[in-house]
């Protein structure tokens, strides 16, 4: 700290008191350039303050507050109709919350503190999550794509810190759901093999609920599960058996998430039954939305991806567009995000049917993640086809695909 300023420079508990020329701005700028942060700014705009002062406050904050850092400005106001238009700079995000009318009788400062408390808790959660991600996914693998263009981690062995993640999620006491469809010949030996391997390797040490959706309860094998494991079985609706198999399955999953699953688990994975767990599939995979890279197409060029190219299809992706090609074998995220994916698929497949087009679940899945970027991307290690020659990038196969 520079000693040129004559005022008090530190508190009696050794905290610096910031004056002009008491800090090295260049050193701080270099540090935060290497360690970017997101800063929240909360402002209350009620009555005449909303009408006369908010616009000028936002314009000045946009210009001078935390320049070159990501900033989220939270505005608490009582009337949306007086919200001024503000053209924010890059790295600035605006979030607006309306103060509930039934609280208007309260003392305004008390009301403001209540909303500030709620907003601070929200921001604290975001900061903790960001710090967890920073220290958990900071390891490098120069031989692979470890981060997407929208800064989501691509999970490979060696790109995450399992110990940090375990410490974080163990405190939360979470429950993870794993849903699988068992139809026809897949309701016997393939299902038994899938559940047995999942019981051994899927989210070890955490509460897990296995959801089996089957077309017949009589063919299901007996399962002996380990501790913290629960099994639920549902029968696929008879009246929908005439539908396309994927559409029928997703309609069933849609109703089960709404009726039951969303209240039971924090995260949900929906997987194909014709695969076997080979290594730990852990909490590093948890996120708001999770997509699986296709083992074959990961090593191909985007222009060769088998996206839906018919312009009339709801799953259409132009030739010059696209990020990755995702596999239908694994999708995941929070229950509501999985629900949204399913709803978009059902809408897309229905629109295509109206236009007399036949499209696949995987094509709509890729269109969904093209528009709604996943928060976690699982590398081909998490779903590898043993028929392929294993390249050096694949260190540990988590799941083996059995087409």
From TrEMBL:
Protein's GO biological process: carbohydrate metabolic process
Cofactor(s) this protein requires: Mn(2+)
Listed InterPro entries: Glyco_trans_6, Nucleotide-diphossugar_trans
Keyword tags: Glycosyltransferase, Membrane, Signal-anchor, Transferase, Transmembrane, Transmembrane helix
Transmembrane parts of this sequence: 37-55, 119-137
Stored Pfam families: Glyco_transf_6
Single Gene Ontology MF annotation: hexosyltransferase activity
Coiled coil feature spans: none
Top-level taxon of origin: Eukaryota
Topology in membrane: Single-pass type II membrane protein
Compartments, record wording: Membrane
GO cellular component: Golgi apparatus; membrane; vesicle
SUPFAM superfamilies (alphabetical): Nucleotide-diphospho-sugar transferases
Major site of localization recorded for this protein: membrane
Signal peptide: none
Similarity remark: Belongs to the glycosyltransferase 6 family.
Protein name (Swiss-Prot/TrEMBL): Glycosyltransferase 6 domain-containing protein 1
Lineage, top ranks: Eukaryota, Metazoa, Chordata, Craniata, Vertebrata
């Amino acid at each position: 700290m520079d000693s040129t300023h004559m005022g008090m420079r530190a508190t009696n508990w050794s905290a610096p008191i910031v004056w002009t020329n008491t800090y090295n701005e260049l050193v701080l700028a270099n540090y935060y350039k290497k360690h970017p942060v997101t800063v929240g700014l909360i402002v209350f705009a009620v009555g005449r303050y909303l009408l006369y002062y908010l616009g000028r406050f936002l314009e000045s904050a946009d210009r001078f507050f935390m320049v070159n850092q990501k900033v989220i400005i939270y505005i608490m106001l009582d009337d949306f109709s007086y919200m001024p238009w503000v053209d924010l700079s890059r790295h600035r995000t605006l979030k607006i919350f309306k103060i509930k009318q039934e609280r208007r009788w309260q003392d305004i400062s008390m009301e403001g503190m209540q909303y500030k408390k709620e907003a601070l808790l929200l921001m604290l959660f975001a900061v903790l999550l960001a710090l967890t991600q920073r220290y958990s996914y900071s390891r490098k693998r120069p031989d692979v794509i470890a981060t997407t263009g929208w800064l989501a981690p691509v999970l490979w062995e060696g790109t995450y810190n399992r110990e940090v993640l375990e410490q974080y999620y163990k405190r939360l006491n979470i429950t993870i759901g794993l849903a699988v469809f068992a139809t026809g010949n897949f309701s016997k030996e393939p299902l038994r093999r899938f559940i047995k391997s999942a019981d051994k390797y899927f989210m070890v040490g955490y509460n897990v609920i296995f959801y089996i959706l089957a077309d017949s309860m009589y063919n299901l094998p007996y399962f002996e599960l380990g501790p913290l494991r629960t099994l639920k079985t549902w029968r696929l609706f008879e009246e929908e058996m005439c539908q396309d198999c994927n559409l029928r399955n997703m309609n069933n999953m849609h109703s089960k998430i709404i009726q039951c699953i969303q209240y039971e688990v924090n995260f949900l994975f929906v997987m194909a039954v014709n695969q076997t767990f080979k290594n730990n599939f852990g909490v590093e995979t948890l996120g708001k939305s999770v997509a699986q890279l296709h083992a074959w197409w990961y090593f191909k060029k985007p222009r060769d991806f088998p996206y839906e190219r018919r312009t009339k299809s709801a799953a259409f992706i132009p030739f010059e567009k696209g990020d990755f090609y995702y596999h239908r074998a694994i999708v995941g995220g929070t229950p509501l995000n999985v629900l949204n994916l399913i709803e978009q698929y059902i809408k897309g497949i229905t629109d295509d049917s109206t236009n007399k087009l036949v499209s696949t679940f995987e094509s709509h899945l890729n269109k969904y993640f093209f528009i709604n970027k996943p928060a976690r991307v699982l590398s081909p290690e998490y779903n590898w086809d043993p028929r392929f020659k294993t390249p050096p990038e694949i260190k540990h196969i988590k799941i083996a695909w059995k087409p």
